[in-house]
Design goal:
alpha+beta; 36% helix; five-stranded antiparallel beta sheet
């Protein structure tokens, strides 16, 4: 190569190096920007609702869902509250919980992290229920509370009591929250050798709640350490014990396989087919995630 072409070759080589450097840096910036973001952001949530009285002569379940059209701005929030049938005014307590949660969510417009929003709404709900009852009536009435929020492709929740929050993904129903019933306490006592293991399953009090709305100071709540990353096709179901106690897990999965539009009717028919003489009120909210 003639020397006169050497500067041109060097310049071309330097330009090529610069382009490679810029390409690598741009790719790194894109990766950094998308780090922690879902690969497929959920753009639409379709909602299914199930709400029935069962064999009871009253309805003490309440539920609510925020406007799905506000998903991309404020997110979407769903709540189920199961009034405690063995106590008075369970319907009023569950209604207070749902109204406080939805009003608070509308007022705050989902500002803050998922955890901050949910804990704030839980705090407001506890306060309103305690104000409704007054100190002299703590534990005279009560309700569970299970609420979940979807925003930017993530899902988080807070629950008190034994209403369940489950994820249906890939044909598997996965319970996300922990129930606050006496069985948990009995299991701990059994592990520590304080009672026989058999009592965990035979104690007639095992389904009694040890943490619920209306007890004054709440003993336990359940929440995730980090939000769940949602995938297209995921379904979330928040349900009272009138649903999951009546049906086998396989029956719930079969209904969810029908899709969010058909699942509520499938679940209800499955419950009615059982014809349990003591069938509890049953309520569920189903959230179907789509891009």
């Amino acid at each position: 190569m003639e020397l006169k072409w050497l500067p041109v070759a060097i310049a071309c080589f330097l330009v090529l190096c610069l382009l490679v450097f810029l390409f690598i840096r741009r790719k790194k910036q894109i990766n950094q920007k998308s780090a922690g973001q879902p690969l497929n952001v959920i753009r639409q949530i379709r909602v299914g609702k199930l709400h029935g009285q069962g064999a009871r002569n009253y309805q003490q379940d309440s539920f609510g869902v925020s406007d799905p059209e506000l998903l991309e701005g404020s997110g979407l929030l769903a709540v189920v509250a199961d009034g405690m049938g063995g106590l008075s005014d369970g319907d009023k307590i569950s209604t207070t919980v749902v109204e406080t949660v939805l009003d608070g969510f509308s007022y705050s417009q989902g500002q803050g992290t998922l955890e901050q929003v949910l804990l704030t709404l839980a705090q407001w709900s506890v306060r309103e229920v305690n104000l409704f009852l007054g100190p002299d009536r703590y534990r005279s009435s009560g309700s569970t509370m299970a609420m979940g929020m979807i925003r930017d492709g993530y899902f988080s929740w807070v629950s008190i009591g034994d209403s369940r929050i489950c994820l249906y993904r890939g044909g598997q129903l996965i319970q996300l929250n922990r129930e606050h019933d006496l069985k948990q306490k009995l299991a701990l006592q059994a592990i520590n050798g304080e009672i026989p293991l058999q009592e965990v399953y035979t104690d007639k009090r095992r389904d009694g709640l040890i943490s619920f709305m209306g007890m004054g100071t709440i003993d336990q709540i359940d929440m995730p350490s980090t939000p769940l990353t949602l995938l297209p096709g995921d379904q979330l179901i928040i349900m009272s014990d009138g649903v999951y106690n009546a049906l086998e897990e396989s029956e719930i999965c079969t209904a969810l396989d029908k899709g969010v539009e058909a699942a509520p009717a499938e679940l209800e028919q499955a419950i009615l087919n059982k014809a349990y003489p003591d069938q509890d009120n049953y309520t569920a909210v189903i959230l179907s995630c789509e891009t």
